[in-house]
């Protein structure tokens, strides 16, 4: 039978200062890991929910983003009549869109303070608006065709200055008035500013070509077929890809931060392991006589190892819980991340999921296990006599 | 009925760097069951070493240890642990209670290794504490007890599995005179009324008076019965 758990739990309680300090050290490591996971999760959710699985995005061959792509009116006219395209009110569901960027200061700062960030401007048609599901106007009204008016995604509105209703945003050949704020759920569209496609194309001097074309197919199989046809048509020189895939690929912008974060978390984890190990070595040294007594009473070496590893596990899990509590306030907080493919920023909210909490706790448990095993082996490895002598 | 303990030509040497220190030198000794045996001698004479060997927590350099008819030297570690739990209770000079466990939990510890239910374990532990006069201190932690009470808890822990032999290593060494007297009374009762064989190591002549047999060790040699070490 094992040494009672109360022996370990009460020992942790008796030396509570050491317990708290060690647990907090482990907690900070877990908090760093969870923070990074929350960022990556938030960004992933933002990009993964963007786009309709039945929609195909057409861009110039070799373009990595809409910003560096162009699709001429002629190309658009060709692809919008392909087979398998959904019709709405007798019109093919296709939108020829122009994408540019505008630099805006952070909310609460001015341009002179240098906190500028690029925001996507998207010029689209009324059909383009209808092709975005789940849109909701939360304030003001939609832009009118032929007027220098824009609507701002809620993500941009929350972070960037000059995006309140009535404010002016300068791009192209003049100022554009903010007339509405829209909510596109957790999608990347929330990080964009939208306006009339025709006027924006002229204003940005793009001639008859725009950045991309979006087409909605009748079903997902048709979407795949259309995407392949666009890709294979040598006359078009366009590349078709499923809209959802396009946004998922942008997750690569989070890779450096994810890598750096995990690297920092691993370095901290090594430190935390040593902290747990040091705490447990001290515990083992101070309780050598107790270990000897327990062995003399008949508890096996494995009972001693199990007991000290259990104590280390409890210590690290306390740290894990502290780490989760430390990082929980981050959940839902809006932030932004520069997207290296679109040269603009994506707004997202930190997402702490049950899976990431479980990962954090497992991470803490592994630290505790590693930190506890060597001291436990030391405690159990001594002879009874040496333990009783405290040597 | 086999003797409680037989030491046959027992020698124990420790190596310190390149020197060999003889702790026990060819000791022959028989302690019968039901005896209250006292081993005296100055510090370093080998008293505790002999007790460690009898408990099977140290191994002799040569010779044989037979406890209750069992040759201790032939046991594996696992067998020795089981045998010790069944036959031997150990009382330390410094009590060696687990500070984070209550008196009842400390006494219950050896019973965790038996198949007894929790209720039965608690009952046995409470009975053992009652025998040593501590039935009103069951939920006290060691730090809430006096030295004498701590030693009584340690005695209760040693006898809770009902072993035939109690080995006591300077059980009154850390106690005041009044507490020491109480402890010796308890050991006497355990020997007289409960039939426990008691082997006590001490250098307190007052404590030795409670024993039936007193032998002296001097520099590892067991002196003949009745012979005192040279002053």
Q: What coarse outline of chain B follows from CA principal-axis ratios?
A: globular
Count the domains of chain A.
2
- Described by the principal axes of the CA atoms, the overall outline of chain A is elongated
Low-confidence stretches of chain A: none
Proportion in helices of chain A: 40-55%
Query: What does the radius of gyration of chain B come to?
Result: 18 Å
- The end-to-end span of chain B amounts to 38 Å
> Cα distance, first to last residue of chain A?
26 Å
Features:
heterodimer, A: 391 residues, alpha+beta, 2 domains, ten-stranded mixed sheet, 14 strands, B: 231 residues, alpha/beta, Rossmann fold, 7 helices, 10 strands, 26% strand
Describe this structure in words.
The complex is a heterodimer of chains A (391) and B (231). Chain A is of the alpha+beta class. Chain A folds into two domains: 180 residues, no CATH class; 162 residues, no CATH class. Chain A is 49% helix and 21% strand. Chain A contains 13 helices and 14 strands. The longest helix of chain A is centred in the first third of the chain and has 33 residues. By secondary structure, chain B is an alpha/beta fold. Chain B has a single domain, classed as 3-Layer(aba) Sandwich (Rossmann fold). Helices cover 32% and strands 26% of the residues of chain B. Chain B is built from seven helices and ten strands. In chain B, the strands form two sheets. A six-stranded mixed beta sheet of chain B has the order 6-7-8-3-9-10, with helices on both faces. Chain B has a four-stranded antiparallel beta sheet with strand order 2-1-4-5, covered by helices on one side. In chain B, a hairpin with a 2-residue loop joins strand 9 and strand 10. The model of chain B has no long low-confidence stretch (mean pLDDT 92). The chains are: A alpha+beta (391), B alpha/beta (231). The interface between A and B is medium-sized, with 23 and 23 residues.
